[in-house]
Amino acid sequence: MRRVISFFFIVGILAGCASEGLQDRSISFKQPHYFPAIIFPEGNEPTLLRFELGKKLFYEKQLSKNEDQSCASCHRLPSAFTDGRTVSSFHENEFARNAPTLANLAWSPYFMSEGGVPTLELQALGPIHEKHELSLSMEAVVGRLNSKSNYAELSKAAYGRELDAFVITRALACFQRALISGDSKFDRHYFLKANDYSELEKQGMDLFFSERTQCSSCHALPFFTDYKFYSLGFEDADIGLERRTYSENDRGKFKTPTLRNIELTAPYMHNGSMSSLEEVVSFYNTGGGTRTTKDSRVKPLNLSQEEERALVAFLKTLTDWNFVQNEKFLVAEED
Ligand code: HEC
Ligand code: HEC
Asked: Is 46's C-beta closer than 6 angstroms to any atom of ligand 1?
């Protein structure tokens, strides 16, 4: 039996909609006890209307130049907030990257593959301005949205001020901090001692946490990332961390991605070059790529075919079905 945990609001979701206007109230995001407590930035503690405004903005197509794309075009709930495409144009075309999951960003110390963005609030400015993403100036966004009366009202009630860049970036961050995912078969087995792993999944887990593969030294608990930067040896044009540090030693290094919900976020790697988990595991087993900045732990592992299958089976236990089916992260169709 699956233990269903609703990782959501401790305080109810129903809005206190007073007749004379919108009424806001603080909420907390329910989180697993095996995750550390979230530290919210001052002035952006979660409230019901901040979350609702952020969600509305996340799905808002007016945020894009041609009114045809929103954040959710590239970050879709059923795919754990990825989009299934090889790359989704992001920086200049040569640096187009695979869209990452947005799960558990509340604990991320910085954002993007090179870690160049220090807060989730600031991160939202990137895609709105970016030529290959939504491609609109913040001024234009504010103008467009303020002409829709419900935005002005929501903004006032949630942040006590007119809708502007401050409000838009904060509300988007508030919504994204609620995207908490920690209810997978792995969590039930490992943290809640449910003991419902198959023999193959157990074997895969032992391998994942072993000295032999060292997978867990980079994909560390509880988020399956250590948030550090490494090269797996890819030789493509994307120089990764070097873009931020200007150091050739950092060429081709990328932030360790989380592996939570990995089964749903194909294709894989910053360049979307691998279409299956079998391919990823086989890549590691044969020692990764050839770039000289490659981390020394990425070397031939001599895994048998059965061991490769076990690792894949383990990775598939990291899926949190309650997360990707949580309707609170969706908006009702626009009227
Ligand atoms: C055209 C597709 C596209 C759109 C639209 C888009 N994103 Fe992204 N997003 C990406 C890609 C690709 C990356 C990875 C960039 C990188 O690593 O350098 C990314 C990265 C991110 C990250 C960083 C995640 C991390 O782990 O560091 C966040 C947060 C994010 N996007 C939120 C948003 C928000 C909010 C919006 C809307 C305002 C948005 N995105 C719109 C494609 C998109
Ligand atoms: C030296 C640190 C390190 C080790 C060891 C390591 N990884 Fe990774 N892993 C990374 C980094 C960094 C990336 C992203 C690389 C990129 O995009 O270029 C990654 C990417 C992945 C991805 C694709 C994630 C995605 O969203 O695209 C999977 C799956 C994965 N690793 C599984 C494993 C497994 C299984 C092992 C053990 C066999 C392992 N990793 C060992 C650092 C590591």
From this structure: no
